[in-house]
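Lab notebook, page 48
Experiment: co-folding of the full assembly
Goal: obtain a model of how the components sit together before planning crosslinking
Operator: M.T.
Materials (sequences as entered):
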Amino acid sequence: ILNVEQSPQSLHVQEGDSTNFTCSFPSSNFYALHWYRWETAKSPEALFVMTLNGDEKKKGRISATLNTKEGYSYLYIKGSQPEDSATYLCAFIMDAGGTSYGKLTFGQGTILTVHP
Amino acid sequence: DGGITQSPKYLFRKEGQNVTLSCEQNLNHDAMYWYRQDPGQGLRLIYYSQIVNDFQKGDIAEGYSVSREKKESFPLTVTSAQKNPTAFYLCASTLDGGGMNTEAFFGQGTRLTVV
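Observation: model returned without errors.
Model output:
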């Protein structure tokens, strides 16, 4: 079983705070790393698909970085708003050299609550 | 509108009965996935299929079975051998099996309760 870890498990911040989460994954046989946002009563929605070491992606106030050599990705939210409250998931995909090619393996998620 | 449809949203079954959860997509995606979520836990992979007529076991396949006879359909059967079937089940698809350049799309999920 691939080990994909996210930290922290949950986070409470005040509106306007900036915050970040971590996703750790195996550093060998890397293929892609996805970030998703999962709001209550909705389906998860993709934030970023990251494939290259050193990738930095941004969507509005949310950005992500990727370090495939050391096996981690950071997700940053600048100036958190109550509507950012959700579970943030990362998913790791292994390349064809690994036995788990094609598996989309998720971390357990970080639950973010932004208080007004 | 393209998307993934899971049905039903809520499902109740008696212990010992097999039950089949439906997942249909009209996105023309090659790969499809079934996940299970339990309270306080993340998404755990049950089965996945990268192409029609082929599928692989995920991390918690025991007590489940799948088929992939059509590109758009990937039904999951929860058998009586599954010791703790009550959970939230989520279906997903990606354009290709690698997931390198395209993200996963998800259904709305089925909450199965076995009594």
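Interpretation: The radius of gyration of chain B is 13 Å.
Next step: discuss with group before ordering constructs.
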